[in-house]
Amino acid sequence: MAPPASRRSSYSKRAQLSVFTGYVVAGIGAVLGAILLILSIWRPDLPGNLRASANDVTTPATSAAAEVRTGSKGFLESVQGYLRAGAQNAELKREMELARIRLAEADAVRLENRRLRALMNLQETDSAPVAVTRMVGSTSSSARRFGYIGAGSSDGVTIGMPVRTARGVVGRVLEVGLSNSRILLITDSQSVLPIRLSDERRNIVAFASGNGDGRLRVRLINLGINPLEPGDLFVTSGAGGYYQPSVAVALVEEVIDDGAIARVVSDPAASDFVAVMPIFQPEAVRAARTADDQRLGEDEGNSPDNPAGEVPAEPAPMPDGAE
Amino acid sequence: MERYNPRARADQYGSRLHREHSTIVANIVPWASIMLGSILPLFVITAAIPWMPPLGYLTMIAWRIVRPGLLPMWAGFPLGLFDDLFSGQPLGSGILLFSLTLIAFEVIEARFPWRSFAQDWFTTGLCIIVYILFAMIVSGAKITGTLLFVMVPQIVLAILLFPLLARFISHLDRFRLVRWRSVR
């Protein structure tokens, strides 16, 4: 298609000038964009407020959509449930019996645990969620994995709080708006999560970061013969002070040289409600941050996009509640 | 009785008797549709891979192709800024890429005034590849082979979606210029 005749540049000085001005103005726009881009890569926390308030505006729409989404998912699941009810019923009964036995055993362990803690003079950590809300959106076209939840500073959410579902860890709060927060999902490649094997006897600690394809890359801290096996469950270790210890994170799927590729236990897309938990040990977080600041000589540790600030390079000593 | 053809006084946007284009609709529809395109990917929850095409960017290109000159050349700045608020990219990446795209299309149009849709699709495909890869580089994600590999579905989807989207935008352009009833 040819452009309309009015848009061809002509011998008219005025028309030529207006075309030229168009290029100049658009060029200035591009340059401004480049400057902003460099600024926001350098200091990722700068435009946070702008973004958070913009998302506050869309939150009503996105949370309504989230409600419809989870509702329709529930409907599909109940239809599927009817189709294979019989076999499932029998299987569930068997599982239920086993689970009752395990529950009784767990009760005994809990009692013993409490007694031992009392002996060691440890305090029970408070783990009531700050807010329970829905996952309302995610950045589905960007290479970064961010999610949005429908609770913000008006619900008491602050930066750094861990977010989990009933199944396991989802991520950590990065930016807080009035009624929404942006969270860094654990599948993001910049997220670093201190974890350990759920099997206490093997005592393996590691870091998990996003692999880029929705799975986690587990890096063992003690190198040597790789002791992992497919099917091993990783839980949070509580190191770093952000996450409660012993929350499920990922299942080992593939063992590689220095660790494993693991599948995330709680897919935020599949869960309807998420809970924002308080920071496990605010003192530990503050301490780690201060040490980092002194080492770097500037306050980069405060920037929410910088995972170096959140986990010290050496594995921190296990916090009290971890073992 | 002999009658006039009822469509005799109509053009493709409807009858012209007592009917006029709405200035408001004609001006708002392109901008609103691009901004809606920027917001839509937010509604999809995906923790695994970014497969959603950058709809705001694609819509802007589609409008640029359907109606050259409708979006001023500086439109990349406000539209890119709006896209940055919701895309999860660092602020400025949308502004830069949207502006450069509009400039590139202006240059291409001055150089090749007569084009077919296939050529426009080709240009758009190149723009999409550059856009997605550049956005990935500046986003701050750790660039690994796996990440490059999982970006492929998004690129392919965006390129294949474009003809459909261009069709949709040309329908939206018809709506933009519909004649509304007005009695003076």
Automatic annotation (TrEMBL), chain A:
Residues 287-323 are annotated as: Disordered. InterPro entries: Cell/Rod_1, Cell/Rod_MreC_2, MreC, MreC_beta-barrel_core. Residues 314-323 have a biased composition (Pro residues). It comes from the Bacteria. GO terms for biological process: regulation of cell shape. Belongs to the MreC family. This is Cell shape-determining protein MreC. It comes from Parapontixanthobacter aurantiacus. The lineage of its organism: Bacteria, Pseudomonadati, Pseudomonadota, Alphaproteobacteria, Sphingomonadales.
Automatic annotation (TrEMBL), chain B:
It is found in: Cell membrane. The chain crosses the membrane at residues 28-49, 91-109, 121-141, 147-169. It comes from the Bacteria. One of its GO terms (cellular component) is plasma membrane. GO terms for biological process: regulation of cell shape. It is a multi-pass membrane protein. It holds the Pfam family MreD. Keywords: Cell membrane, Cell shape, Membrane, Transmembrane, Transmembrane helix. Belongs to the MreD family. This is Rod shape-determining protein MreD. It comes from Parapontixanthobacter aurantiacus. The lineage of its organism: Bacteria, Pseudomonadati, Pseudomonadota, Alphaproteobacteria, Sphingomonadales.
